[in-house]
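Q: Could you fold this chain for me?
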Amino acid sequence: GRAEGRAEGELLIACKTALRGISRNMSRKEIMELTDISDNLLGKLFALYEKYKSEAIKHIEEIID
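A: Sure. Below is the predicted structure, expressed as structure tokens.
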């Protein structure tokens, strides 16, 4: 329902924030303090950024389902 949608929205925002951090060469520790993303998901975001660079945000649904 609505709570699920909100949680999904918050996750998407956190992922976008993390991707911005990655693009600014922030450390994993800094990004994890900034967002509440799990280490596993953060690893996926780093991989996504490596693959797509500045276009990574457009491909975020590949790791969030």
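A (continued): The mean pLDDT is 93.
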